[in-house]
Amino acid sequence: MDFERPVAHVRALFFDVDLAVRSKIHRGVRLQWLPRLPNGERRLRQQTHVLDWMQEEEVVIEERPDGAWIKRFVDGPSLGSSFVATFEADGDARTRVDLGAFLGPRGFAQGLGKMSALGLEKSMKRLLGEYKRALEGYEPARARDRVLAVVAQWTAAKASMKAMNPEQRRAVTGTLIETAWSIAALDDEVDEAEKEALRAVVSGLWDTSYGEAIEERMTRAALAVIGKHGAQARCEALGARLKEIGMVELGIAIAVLVAEASHGLDPAELHALRHLASAASMEEAELLAVVRRTDEQLFGIDEQAAISRFI
User: Fold this and answer.
1) Number of domains in the chain
2) pLDDT digits over 257-284, tens only?
3) Range of the domain at 63
4) What string of DSSP letters covers the chain?
5) Does residue 307 fall inside a structural domain?
6) pLDDT of 136 higher than 80
7) Can you give the pTM of this predicted structure?
């Protein structure tokens, strides 16, 4: 992934662990310093929300002799695995960051078992995106434009909903928005990036908008239901409703789009989408096709700009 900053600035950001601890730049992840060990090693406790599960691990962030950034998993489900980032200057004001994943004996875990290849790819993509936003700032206008461009391709779905009677259209619209909002609320918050993506979906698909009061009410409602019933049960209930109203593919496509356009689809969201799809009788291959298609529609395919590799 390319960063529009000099290599020294980008390296400084990656190694600024205090910033990651203090500012919580990794969404859904909490980092906390642990006491220094007798050998001088300074570990971090990393807590990650995955549906109704809290995964806890210990990690070390250090610099390799060649200047590479390393995040080693030294205790927990991903013991022995690591991420390694290298930095290459592309002129005076741009840096190419290459992120590699080195698998330990048990691979990378994510709460519910070993992380899939797609889950790992998404995790790496999201990690780089979080560092890029921390350095350059989130650009909601750009994200909104990308979402609108994708929604503009959903002409058949838009026409189908326009042909419904008002009562049916209200029920379908409510379920679709509720599904996307629930996926966004999985980590106990709906942040500004996700709200902006949802606004763009509503504008592009239904040619309407809503105010801050409704947005706040929807956020509170999504968090309350997840808190009461649990994330997995919520996803399964919404998947059943999508199947009942005949909007499985569109409902899942909207949820994927909001996650991808805001902060990128993380493994926890992928787990949730799998429960959602299973309850809606969508096959795993169909779900992964929706994810890949959304990636292509949002970002295009550029082999030269590949941001992840597996070792």
Assistant:
1) 2
2) 988 876 677 777 888 899 999 999 999 9
3) 2-136
4) -EESS-HHHHHHHHH-HHHHHHH--STTEEEEE-PPPTTS---EEEEEEETTEEEEEEEEEEE-TTS-EEEEEEESTTTT-EEEEEEEE-SSS-EEEEEEEE--TT--B-SSSBPPHHHHHHHHHHHHHHHHHHHH---HHHHHHHHHHHHTT-HHHHHHHHTS-HHHHHHHHHHHHHHHHHHHTTTS---HHHHHHHHHHHHHHHS----HHHHHHHHHHHHHHHHHH-HHHHHHHHHHHHHHHT-HHHHHHHHHHHHHHHT---HHHHHHHHHHHHHTT--HHHHHHHHHHHHHHHH---GGG--EEE-
5) no
6) no
7) 0.65
